[in-house]
Design a protein that fits this description.
Among the domains are: 164 residues, no CATH class; 31 residues, no CATH class. It is built from 12 helices and 4 strands; from the N terminus they run H-H-E-E-E-H-H-H-E-H-H-H-H-H-H-H. Strands 1-2-3-4 form a 4-stranded antiparallel beta sheet. A hairpin with a 5-residue loop joins strand 2 and strand 3.
Length: 311
């Protein structure tokens, strides 16, 4: 089943309206036309605008979020040089979901923020928080992201043109190994799909191609084994206490005389020894019978010829 890719605008709308009832959402949509669009300013870390209120009043509304730290940016640029599809999307003004995951792995936080990291302010005196003016500004930005997704980069303090220039600049990444099997992407990058992972997004023929020249039977057996693994890892065994090298050595006492001591187990008997032991038992039985019964010649005789065990 193909997974639908959710747009940046829809993702922003979902986060902004989480736990907001329908009545407040309807009031925000009614207030949306009162935003003075020429006054909308999207800068690194903030979105600011003005809204017309009742009786000709003007409300100043803003959203704030901290910009992404840039200490890991050189590492991000090195990986982007090996991520052809992400770079092509950025050149077209799009922000793929895979870039969000990549930034989260390298920088330490995702490019797309959650609702808890976005703060707001409004000069109105309405009791509900967030007020309808703030919700209207969220809706306005969500609609802008559908048309101009690169504005999310602006909000998080990323200069898209400089980023692409650094990616295309002459690199000295000779210490990086070549990509395996001629693939255009780093294999560790997740595909660009909603809530996707490698197992959901790569078909079996693609996995066989990725792992190289192996038989179809071997690849299928490996995939079946991986799918059969439990979702949760087994519990770790309890840690054993590490002996303290500075502690005195424990003293051992000899067992008391009354305590029984365990004798060592006899060595395991081989087949030849077992046959020889049975033969000795038969000979002893014959000797006992001759000594007790006087060697009755009318009875059956037993061939006491040694039996050689089969090798």
């Amino acid at each position: 089943m193909e997974r639908k890719v959710v747009s940046l605008g829809e993702r922003w709308r979902r986060e902004a309206t989480r736990d907001i009832d329908d009545k407040r959402l309807a009031a925000a949509l009614e207030a949306l036309p009162s935003i003075r669009k020429p006054m909308v300013r999207i800068r690194a870390g903030s979105i600011q605008t003005e809204m017309e209120g009742s009786m000709g009043s003007i409300h100043e509304v803003s959203l704030q979020i901290r910009t992404l730290p840039n200490r890991e940016w050189p590492t991000l640029i090195r990986v982007l040089r090996r991520s052809k599809s992400i770079v092509e999307a950025l050149e077209q003004g799009r922000v793929p979901r895979s870039l969000d995951r990549l930034v989260a792995r390298i920088v330490g936080e995702p490019l797309f923020p959650d609702s808890r990291s976005v703060t707001y302010g409004c000069s109105c005196d309405l009791p509900e928080k967030p007020c309808r003016h703030v919700l209207a500004l969220h809706e306005l930005f969500a609609r802008r992201l559908d048309d101009k997704p690169y504005e999310l980069l602006m909000l998080r303090g990323v200069d898209l043109h400089k980023l692409l220039d650094d990616v295309h600049a002459a690199s000295s990444d000779g210490d990086l190994p070549p990509l395996p099997f001629g693939v255009p992407e780093e294999p560790v990058l997740y595909p660009d799909a909603e809530d996707a992972d490698l197992g959901q997004s790569l078909a079996r023929p693609q996995v066989r191609w990725l792992i190289g020249e192996v038989s179809t039977r071997f690849a299928d057996a490996t995939l079946d084994t991986l799918e059969a693994l439990p979702e949760e890892a087994p519990p770790e065994p309890p840690a054993t206490a590490t002996p303290d090298p500075t502690a005195p050595a424990p003293t051992t006492t000899a067992p008391a005389a009354s305590e029984p001591t365990l004798s060592p187990l006899p060595p395991k008997e081989s087949a030849a020894d077992a046959v020889q032991r049975d033969l000795e038992n038969v000979r002893a039985t014959i000797r006992d019978g001759e000594s007790d019964g006087g060697g009755d010649s009318g009875g059956d005789t037993v061939d006491a010829t040694p039996v050689r065990p089969k090798k």
